[in-house]
Amino acid sequence: MRLTIFWERMADHFGAAYADSFARDHVMAELGGRTVHQALDAGWDAKDVWRGVCAAMDVPTDKR
Question: Considering the entire predicted model, what is its pTM?
């Protein structure tokens, strides 16, 4: 998954204004105790980060 697609999905689910705030502040066990930004900076694939977000935040199946 390209980062542009990842951020589009984040904005679609959380809203454009909240997606980045969520990505900076919300620590998730599904990402090894990291935020979205920390996981991406650590080299995680965007697809795996998106899967972690989906699992943690119960993203509807049609948006996954």
Answer: 0.91
